[in-house]
């Protein structure tokens, strides 16, 4: 197999994965244009492209750039973050069931963000205990705590993937109960706000929410791609990877940290949009005929799924449906199928 070398890092060249990634990028751009064009005010795709390139009327610029672009761009970035986070988690655990949704990271981020909403009186900037850091920092902190607890409780002379999943399910259940407790104790306004946010939706997104998510994606995305080669080595097993000079535990902690940051940021921006991190890496594996989830392709497919689901939620149904409900409808049957397929491994 041919490839490229960047110093000590070798990147294999897979024409099939590259071509499919280009196709996924084109599909994502088409969905972005369609998502911006869809709405109560009719704007054609040609007008959308013209406005994005700096043309168009003042009214079109207001609708396209100020009102609709933040929503669609948030969907793209959330999908990218969740797709990459899912690919990282499934690869380093070598298990298709291990995703931020399943091992408690998403539940931790949700608990942190709901706590920020409740303690902050329903505002985006939270004062007092959170020192004004706001919902994004609270979500990342919650995800970090959840992942640390899951990793710590799942450690038995190493981390076995199915033990990690079972511990993560337990941790996620406890955090979900804690979130419910916060909702019960909150004032009616904050509880309503948090409940609507927990469904997972792109409604009401603005440029203030896009910018921090864009920064996180720009920093964590390349780092995740840089982890691709070490992840391939780690697939050979801890002893073999250590024998060729890879710091297994250090690299594993880096992957977990990236997963936490990506998941926490996406949850803070749009709420817990379920099953994206679970489904798209497996789709990427199958259409690319790869042995493990391709990171770039998983991110692009994640963006396609979130933007496409949001577009369907706004156009197919007579009322606005939260995007998280549609992704759950897609992902839940697939989870059941995987659980049935791997039930013997759980029993053993």
Summary, kept brief:
This protein has 348 residues and is an all-alpha fold. The chain contains 15 helices and 2 strands. Helix content is 72%, strand content 2%.
What does this structure look like?
- The protein has 348 residues and is mainly α.
- The protein folds into two domains: 15-65, no CATH class; 81-347, Orthogonal Bundle (ABC transporter involved in vitamin B12 uptake, BtuC).
- The protein is 72% helix and 2% strand.
- The protein contains 15 helices and two strands.
- The relative contact order is 0.16.
- The model is unreliable at 122-132 (pLDDT under 50).
- It is found in: Cell membrane.
- It comes from Paractinoplanes tereljensis.
Order of helices and strands: EEHHHHHHHHHHHHHHH
Shape: globular
Low-pLDDT runs of 5+ residues are 122-132
Computed over alpha carbons, the radius of gyration is 20 Å
Hey, roughly how much beta strand do the residues contain? under 5%
Q: Tally the structural domains.
A: 2
What is the correct CATH architecture of the largest domain? Orthogonal Bundle
CATH fold name of the largest domain, please? ABC transporter involved in vitamin B12 uptake, BtuC
Largest sheet data: 2 strands, antiparallel
Mean pLDDT over the residues: 81
Q: Trace the largest sheet across and list its strands.
A: 1-2
Number of separate strands: 2
CATH class of the largest domain: Mainly Alpha
Number of helical stretches of at least 4 residues? 15
**What's the CATH H-level superfamily name of the largest domain?**
ABC transporter involved in vitamin B12 uptake, BtuC
* Beginning-to-end CA distance, first to last residue: 37 Å
Q: Please estimate the helix content.
A: over 70%
């Amino acid at each position: 197999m041919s490839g490229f070398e960047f110093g000590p890092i070798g990147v294999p060249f897979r024409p099939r994965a590259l071509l499919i990634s280009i196709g996924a990028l084109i599909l994502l751009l088409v969905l972005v244009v369609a998502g911006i064009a869809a709405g109560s005010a009719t704007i054609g795709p040609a007008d959308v492209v013209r406005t994005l390139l700096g043309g168009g009327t003042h009214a079109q610029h207001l609708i396209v750039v100020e009102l609709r672009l933040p929503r669609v761009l948030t969907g793209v970035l959330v999908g990218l973050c969740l797709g990459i986070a899912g690919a990282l988690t499934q690869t380093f655990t070598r298990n298709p069931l291990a995703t931020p949704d399943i091992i408690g990271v998403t539940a931790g981020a949700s608990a942190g963000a709901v706590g920020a909403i409740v303690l902050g009186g329903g505002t985006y900037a939270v004062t007092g205990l959170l020192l004004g850091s706001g919902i994004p920092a609270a979500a990342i902190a919650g995800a970090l705590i959840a992942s640390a607890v899951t990793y710590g409780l799942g450690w038995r002379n190493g981390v076995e993937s199915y033990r990690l999943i079972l511990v993560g399910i337990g941790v996620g259940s406890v955090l979900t109960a804690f979130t419910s407790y916060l909702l019960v104790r909150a004032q009616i306004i904050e509880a309503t706000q948090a409940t609507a946010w927990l469904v997972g939706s792109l409604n009401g997104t603005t440029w203030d929410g896009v910018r921090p998510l864009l920064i996180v994606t720009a920093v964590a995305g390349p780092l995740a791609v840089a982890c691709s080669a070490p992840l391939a080595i780690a697939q050979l097993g801890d002893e073999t990877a250590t024998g060729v000079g890879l710091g297994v535990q250090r690299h594993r902690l880096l992957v977990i940290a990236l997963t936490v940051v990506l998941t926490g940021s996406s949850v803070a921006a749009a709420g817990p949009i379920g099953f994206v991190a679970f489904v798209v890496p497996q789709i990427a594996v199958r259409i690319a005929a790869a042995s493990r989830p391709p990171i770039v392709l998983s991110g692009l497919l994640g963006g396609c799924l979130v933007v496409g689901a949001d577009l369907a939620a706004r156009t197919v149904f007579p009322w606005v449906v939260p995007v998280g409900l549609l992704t759950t409808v897609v992902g839940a049957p697939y989870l059941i199928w995987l659980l049935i397929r791997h039930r013997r491994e759980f029993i053993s």
